[in-house]
Amino acid sequence: MQVRILLFGALKDLLARDGEPSSCETMELPEQATVEELLRRFTTATPQMQKFASSLAIAVNREYAFPSHVLQEGDEVALLPPVSGGCADHDPPRSADDKLDWVRLQREAIDAEALVAQVKEDEAGAVVVFDGIVRNHTRGRRTLFLDYEAYEAMALSQMRVLVSDAKQHFAVREIALAHRLGRLQIGETSVLIVVASAHRAQAFEACRWIIDTLKRTVPIWKKEWFEDGAVWADGEPFPAEISTHAPAKAEIGGE
Description:
five-stranded mixed sheet; alpha+beta; 6 helices
């Protein structure tokens, strides 16, 4: 059988073909092959993968998967280095009134004022906004600009799950979440979270949990460009249940 392998972030550059980043590969596997066997074969064929072996997460058809997951003909297998924020389908356009449109991946500038206005309502006693901004330096090096990429369909799905879980756990009224893709200049907003709640404590807690969890679990990667070169940002390690390829949700409420 044949499966499709998707590569992202530093992996895409590491496995460049003829000097060009490689984002898609195919592999022939025996029937009933598992994720573990695919990864073993792929690592054997591309020894430079060894440096990522202990930090990868694997997704099959846009869901995190165990090593024992049995693959099927035509499966889409994504190899995901630690995230710091494709070959994917896009959801159809939605109307401005559709609350699913409050969770967005977009290439145009984020309109913070418009998102706050959408979420703000009379029943809410507090609106908390997190505005992540591209800064002009990283670890003492002057940043010129950033490039963001994502496993788009999976990232959007994971973002919607985060919003749903946060609303349920923190008992907040509404949440908007937008993340930029593509090239961002210094001072631009890369991610915006807006939380409306009856009380400020829940709004602050939900907002912090969303950004902390997004940075660890949602497949978005950041490439930083400096005067003397470019590097993919080191992502935070995946939670244990993801780095060992277990399809579990992130724990809510902890530090």
